[in-house]
Model the fold of this input.
Amino acid sequence: MSDVSNAAVVMPEKVGSWVWWTGVPGNRPLFVLILLAFFVTMLVIPAPQSMVDLMTEENPMGSKLQSGTTTYLDSYNKLMKAEMTAGEIAQKAKITVALLFTVALLWGTEAIPLGATDFLVAIVLYVFSLLPINSISQAYFKDAVFFIGGVLCVAAGVSLTGLDRRIGNLLLGKIGGIKGFCFIFFPLLAVAAGFFSEHALVALLCPILLLVYAKGCKNAGVKADPALAAVLFLGICFAANVGGSGSPAVGGRSAIMIGYFSSYGVPMSFGQWMMYGLPVVPFLAIAMGAYMYFVAGRRIKSNVNIAGVMKQAVEGIGPMRGKELRMAVLFAALVVLWIFFSGQWGLGGTTIIIVVAMLLSRVVTWQDLQRRVAMDVVLLYAAACAMGVALSSTGGALWLARAFLGILPESWGEGSLILLAVSLFTVIITNFMSDGATVGAIGPVILPMAQIGGVHLWKVGLACSFSSSYAHAMIVGTVNNAICYGMARDPDTGEHLLSVFDFIKYGIPAIFISLVILWGVAVFGYWNFLPWPSIK
Done:
């Protein structure tokens, strides 16, 4: 008998069985069938009368119309070079709303591969003629798309050259015990996560923290220490997550929001984002550190010296030279370009300059970037931008914003209470789908609320973007959570050190703490003393 016959064979699930219907990420037939039925139903049913009326409303508050027009009817016809009726345009708006919810659920459930969902947006826009052909292409290649693609390329270069280890040593090398880890390291990590890939920081720290965990358990004479695991791994998740408020360099959620600001004619520079977001980051991080220390840190059985373990882990790293040195210089140059030239060349343009410099200086090769950069993630942001343009052009975004305001208590529809509503809305959704997908999906919905409620557009957009960083309670909420859950395994047994329930148990209170601090800043804090540009 051959060896093959003795090998364990994994049989595919029987077609039609419950397991087959529920499937696996990227192939979930049941969800595909449900979402297909939803989308087809939305195509068949007539547009609500409120949507039809919106098409002929003169200068609706919160709208973004073509120059020289005063209604969505005239604006959309001018864009499409057509002569459609209000009912026909309302049907287009209804399709964009249906597309928004369908794609958001496809991203959240991974019913089909992420890349397929990204292309599906373009297919629907083309097939149903929701935008002119050239406008669809332009919407897919906004500055925000080049920015997130460039950031992923830079993160790949930092990882390939070993610069990530040196950054990890810089962050952890002087940290002593758990109290220093919570109250000193958390703010450092959070601020760094605002400028450097937070995912890369978490990924490079996890193996080091595993050494800390193993050493602590050995010193205490225990097989496992759940409290130590929670502080080390959940702690860096929470700290890295809240660091997303610090600058637009954190990735897609901020890049998409900056793209939306530009489409409304109020572009925001790198420095302006830092002025509004960076000061709150240390407060958020210290709050996360205090929370984890008092809830879990005081129950730790081990007494670990993090600096000592870190020093052993990076022995032999040597002086910075060669590709690593060139990458460090280019990374520093990138930060300078972001701060001083992003207003002139855009975040995408400045980042692509450094990517080209990385290739020309042979820090990385094109093959390296092809292997390391997830194009489906880049296309996710491209698809989100395209959906935003379609929702804005047809009036679907404004209609959704009005519908959302309609279900809120009347007092929540005006002034600073809109910021509370937006942040709650965002944080609920972002815990079930990625932060970038969340901002991309709901950005066009919440931004028109600014003019309706008499609040500055930037305040509403920043409240949305910042809140999307607070996805502490679900593993799928942020890449940081997924990385920690996947990498935090017992060195001896291979078992997960964190459970799904751990994220929920520690994450939900962390969400409320984060939101309370954001609300304090937005309603009572330094936002009231900063300048906000006028909007025409």
User: Anything to note?
Assistant: Residues 1-11 have pLDDT under 50 and may be disordered. The CA atoms of residues 3 and 535 lie 73 Å apart. Residues 145-378 form one domain.
